[in-house]
Amino acid sequence: MQFGTHQSQPPQESPEFKRWKFRELKIYASTEWLADNKKKYRQVFDRHETTYIYAELSFYNKHFDIEDWEVNVEIRCFAVKKQRKEICNLPFRRKVSKYDPVGYIREGWGNKQEGVFWKKGAYYWEAWIEGEKVATKYFYIEDAGRPLTKIENPYCQITSLRMYEGPYDDTPEFERLYMKHFNGEETRYIYAEVTLKNLLLSKQWQCELFIKFYNDARELKGQVVRLHRMEKSDDGVKITAGWGSNVKGSWRNDRYTAEIVFMDQLLAIMPFEVGADWEEGVNGVWLPDKGQQIFLQPEEEDTESFVEVLTKLDALIGLSEIKAKVREHAQYIQFLQLRKEKGFSEKDGINVHSVFIGNPGTGKTTVAKMMGRLYKKMGLLSKGHVHEVDRTDLVGEYIGQTAPKVKDAIEMARGGVLFIDEAYALARSAEDSKDFGREVIEILVKELSNGPGDLAVIVAGYPKEMKTFLDSNPGLRSRFKMTFEFPDYLPQELSLIADYACREKEVMLAKEAKVMVDELITDAFRSRDRAFGNARFVHDLIDKAKIQLGLRLMADPEVRNMPSEALKIVLAEDVEKVKLIHKRPLPNIPVDENLLTQALHELDSLIGMQNIKKTSANSCTSCGTTAKRAAMCWGVFTCIPCLWATPAPAKQPWRVSSPKYTKPSAYSNAGTWWKPIARAS
Questions:
Q1: What is the C-alpha radius of gyration for the chain, rounded to an integer number of angstroms?
Q2: What is the pTM of this model?
Q3: Who contacts 143 (Cβ-Cβ below 8 Å, separation ≥6)?
Q4: What CA–CA distance (Å, rounded) separates 244 from 191?
């Protein structure tokens, strides 16, 4: 007999003589056994971690404790497409023991290698018993482009978790009263309100969430499963799930936790209590991926006006040229908008993509956030947020990984600003065809050319490298109309930033300490290079001074009796210790007299250049022990005051071992410049 066919045929047994009664059809992928003969039942699976998908058919044995018998079962799997496609057809004849009150049939289909057989899509299992179709169960395979791990979740991010009490049919959102403690005598259902941010905006996908309630003994009190389809346009979703009874008093006085699970990964844990009293509020949430307890709150609505955003921009320290250029840019956009309102076509559209050039800590990210909010107020962006990425967030390790990562980053930034820091790292070498960074650039160019819009792209980095980046693709430079150059902060501006950092960190510089901080800032500014941290350097300096303040006070046994004012004043001695940290002692190495004599002898053997030889010998004599000690830090040195203007023949016998010529402050002999050299072969 053919089981499960669509032919019209009577079942083998009439209903009154059936030896079975259908119970349930469930789906799972992990073969791990759980308590009570259970599996990890799910409906949504990640492609990268899936090998086999199993169907578990269960039925009640109506001949329990009477006799053994055999049952004919057929399990089929189909892919849901325009027309259904059969994946497999598995017929069985199984013995049912009279000692089993419930019969189980578990069979699966797939491949033992993860991510090989199952592809993204919707599927379903069908179950047939004795030629009768008894159940259909759907499941979904999702693909985020990269695996889901305990550290990284490419699908969603939990942004809020709150608890409230209500009846069986839930409570309207505007009537919800969020609680930390619940009254045991009055509580009916306790609901968890979970807000998830959609991170996979480029695709439609199924979000399956498990909300589990445990008591203090880690006994499972209840579980609710929610299945929600995420659309491409969904920023996120708010899901509620409650457990309890409409009869008050079903919750015993105890400590509980609500745990949120997604694809077998624990997203968050929130503790709450049931006792004698009510207490409003929101408890801290434990996030396993961060390893700490934090307070999650829903994002507040942006109520700032266009003028208020510009006012905050003007309040930034320094950046006068940037502020003026941003204002001009905003005014020009308003002019273009006005022209469109008056009937002008403006075929080129409004370009909001920019290049930020400058050293670290010069305010690039801060200004990018301001521009995102300005664009939102002007109606050019729907959200105005900033999604910051760099090469590691965009470039995949293997072929096929880069494009999904870039598209996900673009979709996460959709409605706001995609800020690519150190963008030049995407164009490491024009000759390296295996560098996936070039694929990122190609996708960006395509997005900027004919993408759906609602996106501003800002690329940032050093001037020279950014020129190379913009030249790496013929169509890249034309997509960025605005270039903003962020200069290094001046010492007086860095001093104001130090005052701001003190307010942020709730400390206060004593008068002498403030003078010393300004001196450190000036010294750092004088010796800066392109890696100079600017505002970051200042914040780090205040951080270290605060640490020294703490170490000094904690050494005092009476620290707990000190007034609160004493716990915030940074003294000069605290800054002095920070200053000493930056100073590196000079090595005390004896001079190799033979090597120095040999070097001077070789210099003396050169033809001509008597003035140079005489000056060099006098300089070596006058510099004394300090210069000799410094010389040994490098090996062999020459002390040649005027070598900068010496013609090429005079330099030929020597090979410079460092391209930089420096004048250390410790060797401040007038007119003398030290240069590390080595003997030419």
A1: 36
A2: 0.53
A3: 46, 47, 48, 119, 120, 203
A4: 9
